[in-house]
Amino acid sequence: MAEERVEKNKIVTFVYTITDEAGEVLEQSDIPHDYLHDQDERMFPRVIQALEGHQVGDVVKVTLTPEEGFGHYDPGLTFSDDMKNVPREYQRLGAEATFNDAAGESVTMRVTRIEDGRIEFDGNPPFVGKTVVFIINILGIRDASEQGIGTGQPTDAPTQKPTLN
Question: Hey, what domains does the chain have and what are their CATH numbers?
Fold first, then answer.
């Protein structure tokens, strides 16, 4: 039997590391993640392209510029308020709070500055403006279920019914 390859409608299980251009680790996940190849909108297009055709055990490195990855800094994604208006649990650097924007979408913002009685929240992604390198270790590849293909999200239901002997 031929090795499974990453292709459309396959669920890919992987772990990853994100580094900056100098190789410093910015984020690492040793917890396996699943995504539905060429369907799941949470994955960057350049990463999808780079994974195409690879097999279990392959390690794929992809460099993403800000335009291809986390984008450029958007000052419109910041919010500042008087410290007295912010609950105590958010009055520390790095604290995260979830807000709803005008469209009703949830936006997670981090406290990035506390100064002169004011607190600033920033909703930009943590790696915004950076060129990053994704290092992806492929742990598994399997067929997606019909439900997963319909939703664009990985599911654990198999696409084929098991044969009973």
Answer: 10-70+129-148 (3.10.50.40), 75-122 (2.40.10.330)
Report whether pLDDT(152) > 80. no
Can you tell me the distance from the alpha carbon of 15 to that of 161, in angstroms, rounded to the nearest whole number? 28
Phi first, then psi: give them for residue 6, nearest 5 degrees: -70, 120
Q: What is the pTM of this model?
A: 0.74
Give the Cα-Cα-Cα angle 66, 35, 94 (nearest 5 degrees). Answer: 50
Q: How far is CA 63 from CA 18, 20, 24, 114, 146, in A?
A: 10, 9, 14, 34, 32
- Here the tokens at position 149 are 């293909």
Q: Do 126 and 109 meet the contact criterion of CB atoms below 8 Å apart?
A: no
